[in-house]
Amino acid sequence: MTRYLVTGGCGFIGKRLIANLIARPDTAFVRVVDDLSFGSREALAAIAPFEESTGQVPGLPQARLQLVIGAICDAELALAACRDIDIVVHLAANTGVGPSIADPRYDCSTNVIGTFNYLEAARLAGVARFVFASSGAVTGEVEPPIHERVPTRPLSPYGASKLAGEAYCCAYANSFGLQTVALRFSNVYGQGSGHKQSVVAKFIRQALDGEPLVIYGDGGQTRDLIYIDDLVEAVALSALTEGLSGEVFQVATSRETTVQELVTALKHALAAEGAGFPDVVYEPSRPGDMRRNYADTAKAKAMLGWEAKIALPEGLRRTVRWALSQRAGA
Length: 330
Description:
Layout: E1 2-7, H1 12-22, E2 27-34, H2 41-45, E3 51-52, E4 65-69, H3 75-81, E5 87-90, H4 97-102, H5 104-125, E6 129-135, H6 157-176, E7 179-185, E8 187-189, H7 199-208, E9 213-216, E10 222-223, E11 225-227, H8 228-240, E12 247-251, E13 257-258, H9 259-272, E14 280-283, H10 298-304, H11 312-329
Helix pairs in contact: 1-8, 3-5, 5-6, 7-9, 7-11, 9-11
């Protein structure tokens, strides 16, 4: 029976991952550390009943889901949260290129020191494996498809902070024998992403609000858009598959989609759900944004037995359906 700690578990990816883990019969419990800056107790309760730890040192839970409220920069909390844990999945982070450019110091302190805190706590607690949520932003502007062997030259502080996290994972695997796995997420979308500033979430929000869709640049820039459930399955596999210590994996679809193609696909998804489509406006490109970005996931297929299954049209329709249901229930 496996005992998990998920940092950032009340967030977009965290909630779907917890639902996946709780459904597995070999999961003993999932402990969540979250500062509730974006998520909520109510969202967590919608997944499963949970108990909330009221002290600084969380004890073994009676329920299969436990919430510990706190920030990942709290080193003492990290030490306490990692006790009695087999696998740490470190999702909590300051996310996005834009926020990292607006406040690079905060991005560094959260993403670099926060990751270090949980690696060190995992080492001291005897955790078996540490799964780190990295990003395709670590590579910078390179000729795609991006794979794990390309040189890393981040364009943004966010990419730099995630690369530092990968480096610390590698160091802890080599110096201390902590099994670490770093997953470079591509652009993830899907249900639960209502507050996100990523391109799909923002476009759906703008469309349902009747606002113009804003494209930065000419619309020819490309992204690798992965549906949340595909990504979560990759995380779960990386937590349990043997022989992965120190490895880095691209978690993506291996499909290149232009922003203009995304707009067209979203138009069809909205129409299929009976929603209208707004105007599209173009603004200048933003600093730190890559022109082309899609990944080669052959390594994940070979070593994890994983590949993305949900195509963009189906994933968009599921996401639009979820967004409409949220508005209907509000």
